[in-house]
Amino acid sequence: MISVVNTKDILNCVGDPFIKEITLDSPITKEIIFKLGEGGELEYLDRLKKPFFKISYSENYLIKGVEGNNSLRVILKDPELKNGDLVIKKGFNYLLSVLEYI
Fold first, then answer.
1. Residue 98 class from Cβ within 10 Å (0-12 exposed, 13-18 middle, 19+ buried)?
2. Average pLDDT of the chain, as a whole number
3. What is the 3-state secondary structure (H, E, C) of 39-95?
4. Nearby residues of 40 by Cβ (< 8 Å), 6 or more positions away
5. How many angstroms from the chain centroid is the CA of residue 82?
6. Where are the domains of the chain?
7. SS3 36
8. What are the backbone angles phi and psi of residue 5, rounded to the nearest 5°?
9. Which residues contact 82 (CB under 8 A, 6 or more apart)?
10. Which of the following CATH numbers is that of domain 4-99: 3.30.1450, 3.30.160, 2.20.25, 1.10.12?
11. Beta carbons within 10 angstroms of residue 61's beta carbon
12. pLDDT tens track for 46-81
């Protein structure tokens, strides 16, 4: 099981969180990327030197990162959205639920 070792909120210009940067205790693998992609629309660019991924979810957030890195980001699609912090939390909780089974 992969664990989260650190989280960091990145704020927009009015001080609301719109990105949560998450550091894991292990590198992000292709398996993790595709498991996360099952719940959304996966864009996986494996032709790059370090494969990049972005997964868009209908709940108004996305998760993106680079295969092999220990960190990724949960991003609010619309930083001006009311209750954006709840959307970010939902994305973070989804990420945790997937990591629990890897």
1. middle
2. 88
3. CCEEEEECCCCCCEEEEEECCCEEEEEECCCCEEEEEECCCCCCCHHHHHHHHHHHH
4. 55, 56, 57, 58, 62, 63
5. 20
6. 4-99
7. helix
8. -100, -20
9. none
10. 3.30.160
11. 26
12. 999 999 999 999 878 999 999 999 999 998 887 677
Q: pLDDT tens digit string along 39-51?
A: 899 999 999 999 9
Q: Are strands 61-66 and 71-76 parallel, antiparallel or unpaired?
A: antiparallel
Please give the torsion angle defined by the CA atoms of residues 96, 93, 32 and 27, in that order, rounded to the nearest 10 degrees: -60
Q: Which amino acid is at 47?
A: R
- Which helix H or strand E contains 4, and what residues bound it? strand 4-11
User: Which amino acid is it at 90?
Assistant: K
